[in-house]
From TrEMBL:
Keywords linked to the UniProt accession: Signal
Protein name, as recorded: Putative lumazine-binding
UniProt entry tagged with the keyword Phosphoprotein: no
Leader peptide range in chain numbering: 1-20
InterPro entries given in the database record: FrzH/put_lumazine-bd, NTF2-like_dom_sf
Length: 148
């Protein structure tokens, strides 16, 4: 009986630790989309590492790179509530100071579904804080209603 109690305590401590770690990794991602929705360039800037990379896989399979400062500037020029990217976190993997997060999404502009796809985030822990180092996403206009 004592072994069962000890095992239960160890498993619950592990699960709680995993949940807290996942929440820490999710925070900059959630802040990214909150900043977009609120057109908050300062909050947006705070989620990225200094050497972050932003890329998109285009419809023809090429990879387009966007500059983070221009992305931040464009978000800051939007009106509040114009940009609404709704994500579902499907997977989080953490190894030390590296995390990987996969999030299918639907992107709404001024309340209208514009496109959908998936984001792949790579995060690094710097000065005890998770920062987005790399984002690559896909974008499509078909099959977006169900988030797939």
């Amino acid at each position: 009986m004592n072994k069962i109690v000890v095992l239960s305590v160890l498993l619950s401590a592990f699960c709680f630790g995993q949940k807290a770690a996942n929440q820490d990794v999710q925070k900059p991602i959630q802040n990214l989309f909150l900043a977009m929705k609120n057109a908050d360039a300062e909050l947006l800037k705070s989620v990225f590492s200094e050497t972050a990379i932003l890329q998109t896989v285009t419809k023809d399979g090429t990879v387009k790179t966007d500059a983070i400062p221009e992305f931040i500037s464009s978000i800051g020029k939007a009106a509040k509530d114009d940009l609404d990217e709704r994500i579902t976190i499907e997977a989080i993997h953490i190894d030390g100071d590296l995390a990987s997060v996969f999030t299918p999404y639907q992107f709404y502009y001024k309340g209208k579904l514009l496109h959908c796809g998936a984001n792949s985030f790579q995060l690094v822990k710097q000065n005890n804080s998770w920062k987005i180092q790399y984002i690559i996403d896909t974008r499509r206009k078909e099959n977006c209603e169900n988030g797939k």
